[in-house]
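The pair is set out directly below:
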Amino acid sequence: MTLKEFLEENPIIKNAVLARSMYPNNKSAHTKLANKLAENKSGTGKQRVTDTDEALAKEELEKLIHRIVAFINQ
């Protein structure tokens, strides 16, 4: 499953919020992720979700998993 498919199947996870967590030093993080997910053209090619992007997303989603489990187990 790709990051795009995962986010489409789980709309409770907001792309903009995830993007700000993935790219904390980027003022346009939500646009960056949206362009990659939509494979918008930039320069001579399409923007794509890279392995690094997927790793960042998984890292942030793993943090969310731990917070959800802690909340459920209260």
